Amino acid sequence: MYNRIFGIAGLMFRQAVRSRFVVSLFCLLLTVLVGFTLTIQGDGTASGRLQVLLSYAMGAVGSVLGMATLWLACGSLATEIESRRIHLVVVKPVRVIELWLGKWMGILAVVLLQLVAAGLFMWAAARIGEHRTVAGTPDGIAVREEVLVAREWVEGRRLGPPGDRPVRWSLSCPELPEGATGMATLSYRFLSAWRDQPPVIGHWMLRGEDGRIWFESDCTANQDGVNRLKIPLAQLRGGEPVELLFEERPNAAGQVTGATFHPEREVELLVPTGGFGANLMRALLLLFCHVALLAALGVTAGTLFTFPVAVFASLALVVATLLAQFFVFSTAPERVAHEHHHGGEEGPSWIERVGAHASETVRMAMAPTLRYRVGLRLAEGRRIPWREVQAAAAVLILGYGGVLCLAGCLVLRRREWALPV
């Protein structure tokens, strides 16, 4: 069984190489990445330029590779069925699941080759950007401690009732390697309806369960935007819960601004726990899981439709999945009939109700496919954990991919091969 699967996968890979698909895709990716490298300027800083480059490069690789993979996968079986070349395979002792898996694995080999090339380019571009900065300068520190790093994200949990002073949070510090050096970053925001408000004068404290103070610092923070405070890793205890306190102090005029923290993201602690190379590899593996799902969708669509129709049907499903959240909020707003002086408002029509239910069904069915995204985490230096990569592989490849494989095999099993196409 395995020999037949690997044999079909090898034929699929060689077919992609002979059709110059691999070379064309490689040249397209290289052109896009080199173009980004030469044209992106960022915000004028080395760290900003590198962040924009990494985020654009990862998005471009995902988009180009996803579209190309969907095109290749839709034609892998559809063109062979239409040209009747599939008859040379089905008359041999080959099961339909072996045929489906062989085509799918051959496409994944092409995807993996392109991802390795794109990953090497992004790693080289990041290292070149690092070497262009001088260690110890503000740009060099930002590049090394905020971009080319993998930082664990810890969100603070508010302690005490609202309005309690000082404001307290509970944080769970991740495990740190022994003798870790560097700086953790405390990110916090205030809630302000107006710009150019007076700064907030305050005092931060970090203490352990025994009440001993590990770190304290005075700060002058802006009420609009994100504020950051550097905390030495030597002052943290990995794996132990800590209590974070903030007490506002009067300014030079003896006044207290009374600023309140943002309710959605009050405080976040970013602790460096790894390097950029491993984080880039995990980001590419997450991207590989998504592209593998697109390949499974394309192969199954190729069993149902002819080649052009399979591509359009797959693209329609992908677009509907990406826009499902928008459809839910735009077609099914919470509308309640209110009584006014001129009477009650008309409720939603049956078409709107059907559309709302359909959108909600699509969103619920496809929500797990949108859960595992790289987003801006690689560019912002946020760590992508291995457990997320494993969960993405289980859900996207084994779960959704298995369902698509079963559907494709059922269609192939019930197909009448001797009939005209």
Description:
There is one protein chain. With 421 residues, the chain is α+β, with helices and mostly antiparallel strands. The protein is built from eleven helices and twelve strands. The strands form three sheets. Strands 1, 4, 7, 9 and 10 form a five-stranded antiparallel β-sheet that branches. Strands 2-3-8-5-6 form a five-stranded antiparallel β-sheet, with no helix packed on it. The longest helix is centred in the N-terminal third of the chain and has 38 residues, at 46-83. The model is unreliable at 332-344 (pLDDT under 50).
Descriptive labels:
single chain, 421 residues, alpha+beta, Jelly Rolls, five-stranded antiparallel beta sheet
